[in-house]
Write a structure and sequence with these properties.
- By secondary structure, this protein is α/β, with parallel strands linked by helices.
- It has 4 helices and 4 strands.
- It has helices at 20-27, 51-56, 65-74, 96-105; strands at residues 8-14, 34-40, 59-62, 81-84.
- It has a 4-stranded parallel β-sheet.
- Helix 1 (20-27) packs across helix 4.
Length: 110
């Protein structure tokens, strides 16, 4: 019997969970090593971040420094790795330039 190692859980955060973080999540659809989810920090987010999501994540990627600040203020981030991608809110879902930026930033995970 072959033992499968646990998938690493990656969580992508932006403001409204409409364009940047869902695009990043989509890059990991059916990935063999990682499972991915996305959420937003805004009250108007499509999917709002919560403590359960943070607890699920092994690594949390935020699009901007302000997202990291909001997470550390609102949630228990006990020893969570947070990576700031520095991707501004200038892109639509699936924008080729956004995908290129994500591929470059996330190359160690893809």
């Amino acid at each position: 019997m072959v033992k499968r190692s646990k998938l690493a859980n990656l969580l992508f955060i932006c403001s409204k969970n409409q364009w940047r973080s869902p695009t990043a999540e989509h890059l990991f659809k059916n990935h063999h090593l990682h499972s991915a989810r996305s959420a937003g920090t805004s009250d108007k987010a499509r999917i709002r971040i919560n403590q359960k999501m943070i607890d699920w994540a092994d690594t949390i990627f935020v699009m901007e420094r302000k997202h990291r600040s909001l997470l550390t203020q609102r949630f228990n981030m006990a020893d969570k790795q947070i990576v700031v991608l520095d991707i501004p809110d200038d892109y639509q879902f699936g924008d080729p330039e956004l995908i290129d930026m994500l591929h470059t930033s996330l190359s160690a995970y893809l």
